[in-house]
Amino acid sequence: MDHDAVRWLDEDQQWAWRRFLEGTSRFFEALGDAHDEGLPVTLGEYHLLVQLSEAPERALRMSALADFLALSRSRLTHTVDRMEKRGLVTREPVPGDRRGVRCVMTDAGYDALVAAAPGHVTAVRRLLVDVLDADEMTTLGRAMSKVAHAAKGAE
Amino acid sequence: MDHDAVRWLDEDQQWAWRRFLEGTSRFFEALGDAHDEGLPVTLGEYHLLVQLSEAPERALRMSALADFLALSRSRLTHTVDRMEKRGLVTREPVPGDRRGVRCVMTDAGYDALVAAAPGHVTAVRRLLVDVLDADEMTTLGRAMSKVAHAAKGAE
DNA sequence: CCAAGATAGTTGAGCCCTCAACTATCGCGG
DNA sequence: CCGCGATAGTTGAGGGCTCAACTATCTTGG
């Protein structure tokens, strides 16, 4: 790539980009810590359980879960392995497609979700929602929605 | 934590929070991919080299680097180990504090930074900067700056 | 109806990160 | 000026993630 042809970032862009980098890094570290200190599931496991809790019959096939959570299939397989061992989810065949696997939330998984939710939401408020005013939160949502779309198109 | 006392997120907050989650996840995955496919250093190594390039004598002590990059000391030690083996940085004693270690960028490190910069900036534009309008970018920067501060206070 | 490519998911090796324990040095209160 | 808590950085074991290879099943064009 030609160095002279690159459109470098101007000062404002550079500033915003670096705040984004630092902010996301520190935010996810702190949120992860909140889960590790006192909640029964990690942040990633929590998001997985949330997706299942909102699905019909509290079950989704692996590929759908991977897509919703933006995880690689391999990573999801490993994560579900661990959660299955702890009794939070089970695996079942998908009716009508013998390649497929349905991941189903158990009652213990639901209990873990319910137990983790207050601490999780409290941390998300403390670290993000309550730190921003409503306009900033809305703009953040809209902006990141665009970003997600751009990144998805680039896959 | 009492379930009934929790201030849950309203619908708009929930929406924005989920867009933020998905957006950051997909963004960093795509940016990491851009580095893995064709650039001589990973995203993390790139950020480390950027910090060094802006420091006097292209050197910083480990603790300062860890702080700027929001990395644990241990992680930084391991990362610098690997980069040192590849000749991108070297370690030197800090004059006046025999506990300290200065991490110094080599010429090869500088070359790697220069080689990676165009691809990096192009990807950041494609995935973030050019996707947002100027107002959104500014708000994003200000918002994440607040978030970084909140997370830092919580350490 | 079948061959070839696409899709679903798993596997295991290797790499990177985390965590706790450790060494070494600094600096301050008494 | 000494003892002790704080600070700087490293180490290695353990665990999670990535990547490529693999099996199994589905689907589609001819």
Report the structural category of chain A. mainly alpha
Strand content of chain A: 5-15%
Strand ordering within the main sheet of chain A: 1-3-2
Point out poorly predicted stretches of chain A.
none
CATH topology group of chain A: Arc Repressor Mutant, subunit A
User: What can be said about the biggest beta sheet of chain A?
Assistant: 3 strands, antiparallel
What's the CATH first level of chain A? Answer: Mainly Alpha
Q: Quick check: average pLDDT of chain A?
A: 95
| SS element count, helices of chain A | 6
Largest interface: A-B, 62 and 61 residues
Number of E-type strands of chain A: 3
According to CATH, the homologous superfamily of chain A is: Winged helix-like DNA-binding domain superfamily/Winged helix DNA-binding domain
CATH architecture of chain A: Orthogonal Bundle
Count of discrete domains of chain A: 1
Give the N-to-C terminal Cα separation of chain A: 21 Å
